[in-house]
Amino acid sequence: MNPPVWDKIKSRVVIERSVRVEQLNTDGWAMTYLLVCESSGKAALIDPVWDNLSSYESALEGLDLVYTIATHTHADHITGCFSLAEKGCEYVMHKGSPCLGVTRHVVDGDEIQLGNFALTFHHVPGHTSDSLIVEVSGHIFTGDFLFTGNRGVGRDDLLGGRIDQHWDSLAVLKRFPGDVLVCSGHDPPGTKMQSLAWNRENNPILTMTSPDQYRQWQETTSADLGSVSNIKTALPANLFAEIPENVPWLN
Fold this sequence. Notes:
alpha/beta; 7-stranded mixed beta sheet
């Protein structure tokens, strides 16, 4: 059975094989996913945003938060992973991540257990050197490695980014069947999460046939986007696992 599409990502819940998946953020483009093993009450958060930690409390009530996972080193917002880890859960990232505060490192092909189901990690360097896809029961959480439809993929001109690596890492998507639901790390509010098969037809990156096409797209896209306004605050915070005294976008 194909996974359902989320008509409104901020409020829609998916229940499949005793796995509950919910996108928690109600505004902004960053996505935070809650995974719950319904039978055990064990939970994981993928890409929690530090600004929103208080808003996650009601969703986590009555659950045992075991893991907080960063799909990559974020440059545009402060991760909530290290703050949550201080409360007792594990902070999971790729083994090659430069971020401090990580308590559990994974490599390509590793699995960790969350209640009665497994989370499988796939290393996809390119957007960053530590980028991961997290695979869970009919879903792949792609971070900034792959976005939905015409938004393509994340930019490769920031810390640790490599255009050629990102292009080569696209081959990892061959590991997954077409009916898995692609849950991206950034998309506009209200974006429908679609299957990998749909993205293979509608995402321009997945229809490209040469690395030269991809390089041209990346260079044009990065030039259009310009600088990342939050990077001077967010990136050091994520690397050193420290909240700065002044977070400009909260003032």
